[in-house]
Every structure is written in C-alpha cells, then in structure tokens.
Amino acid sequence: MRVTAILRKKLQQQKVDGILITDLLNVRYLTGFTGSSGYALITRKQAVFVTDFRYQEQSRQEVKGFRTKIECGERAGELKEMVEVLGVKKLGFEDHHVTFGFYKRLLQKKLRLKPLTGAVESLRIIKSPFELDCINRAIRRAERAFRKLQPSIKAGTTERKLALKLEELLKEEGCKTIPFGVIVASGFMSALPHARPTNRVIKKGDLIVFDWGGEYDGYYSDMTRTVAVSGKDIAKQREIYYIVLEAQRKAIEAVSAGIKATEVDAAARKYIKQQGHGENFGHGTGHGVGLAVHEKPYVSWRSKDLINENMVFTIEPGIYLPGFGGVRIEDMVVVKKDRAEVLTGLPKNFKII
What we know:
Elements: H1 2-14, E1 18-21, H2 24-31, E2 39-43, E3 47-51, H3 56-62, E4 67-70, H4 75-85, E5 91-94, H5 100-108, E6 113-116, H6 121-124, H7 129-149, H8 159-172, E7 183-186, E8 207-212, E9 215-216, E10 219-220, E11 223-228, H9 235-254, H10 261-274, E12 286-288, E13 295-299, E14 312-315, E15 318-321, E16 325-328, E17 331-335, E18 340-342
Parallel strand pairs: 1-5, 3-4, 5-6
Antiparallel strand pairs: 1-2, 2-3, 7-8, 8-11, 9-10, 12-13, 14-17, 15-16, 17-18
C-alpha cells in the first residue's frame, strides 16, 4: 500500500523502528477497518492490525494489506510482546491520541517510546481519487436533502423542527451518520456562529443560517447557506449577505497550489474589514474535510499549512451582528494547480422565502 510505504520512510526519518496508530480515523485510513476498537502497528517490514474478538469477522472483510491479530489479553502487555517479536527497539506513537494512562502502562512495560506528530494526518491531507469521489457523493446527498427541506422553511415554524427535518432527510438520502449537529439559527440567534437549534419561532424578516453536512462511506461534506424570510425591510440583511458573498468569491479566487493558507484567509478577511465589519468576522475562513469534518488544512490567520493540489477544504466567511443576525456562506473546494474547483453546487443568490 502506497501510504504504508510512505510511513515506513517516516520511520527512518524519525529514527524509530515502528509506529503505533491508535486514532481510529487514521486506522481506518490505513487499513479500511470501520469498527470501534483496534490499532495498527507498522514496522520497517511488517504491518499488523490488532482488534478484539467482536470484530474478528469484520476485520477479515475490511482490512487490506495488514496481517490481522485478535487481542486476547491486556493491551499494553500484548503490545510489548509483539514489538519484541518484531524487533522494535524504539516505538513511535501518535502524540495527540495516546492517553497518559496508556502511555504510563507502556513505560511500565519498559518500552522505549517517541511521540510523533501528524504522521498519518500529513498523508490524509491530500485526497485520492477514491476519496474525492466519496466526498462528492457526500455533498450530493447533503444538497438533495436541503432541496427537499426548502418547502418547510417559512415563518411560524421553529429552528428545532427544521433541524430535525433536515437530519431525517439526510438519513433518507443514505447518510449513515450525521457529521455534526445540524445548525439552524434564525433572527438574532444567527449572530452565533455555532448556535444550537432552539424552539424559537421563525419570524418575518429573519435571517436563517443553515449549516449541515452529508456522509458517504465514512467521508463527510460541510456547507452553509443563509436565507431571509420576507419582511418589510430586509435591506441590511441583503447588504451584509452580499459582502459575505464577495468575500467568499475573493477567497476562492485566491486559492492556488503552493500558497499559504493564511493568504486565502486574508483575501476574505481584508474585504470584510474594508466594508467595516472586521470585528464581526472572528473565526477562520475554512478547514479541511474528509474522514473528519474538521481536519487539515486549516484556513485561518493562525494557520501554518501550505495549500497543495488535491486538498479539500471549506471556504466560509461570515458576518455576525449581535442582536441583529448573521450571514455565513460555506462551500467546499478541491485545489487544482492554479485554482480552486468548487465542489458544492447549491445556488448562492440572496434567497428570500
């Protein structure tokens, strides 16, 4: 497997004899295993997947390119025996995932350990054709669900009812899991970027922010649309909507392989600031999406990531006016050599219900 070969090169660079992969998303990425218990051990010559009896048959069906071992005893002890048999003198481990308790148990077994950062995430950041296909299918499911929801969006209903309906529609479209709690935020609540749906009744003149995602074969999508409910005066709502839309356009146009993620963020942030709303846009412009709904690259003023071909991430600037409401527009893009290809296709004109 290509990624396993790349990981083995990292072993040499990091001066370890093996790497322990315990983050289940990374385990899935490497082995294909979708269960809830298991880990992978990759040495310079061997690749072993370990799980317990419950997943014996499932691992036979899913795991490719790894020898499978069924765990029978205490994990730290079995791991100690395995690394001795495989000749691992120094073992790398994922510093973001191993608990302190498990780390102490490994030390008690006299294992020589070295924390490693982003060994698998640095591979996951570039999407393969298979992954891009899954992400596109997750997008299409999410878009179909939202189109079916639209007749229900009207004054008199509640945020919670719309959120529950959208989740139901996502599942009807085939999503086995919902990547995150659907956000439906109306009126003054839409000024909260991650508002939770409430029993607030939607009123005329309200802005409504919908933030939701789909799933296909473990891969996710993430998008946001903002609509307005017809009212007497929605000039201010329209004004901030088109500022956000133009900021998003500028950020999308800024995308090119080889640039810093901060440059994409700056394109949106600079325009919003020029329009007098710099203090009303406080979150990052985007984030990667794949097996996790938030992963590298991170597109913000603090990011250290570089943008490269076949990365997939969101572009989602927003303006949030306390006590009034907010607008966010979010699309997913894949990076080509000198441009961004927008993957999401729902219309972005200012929609008045």
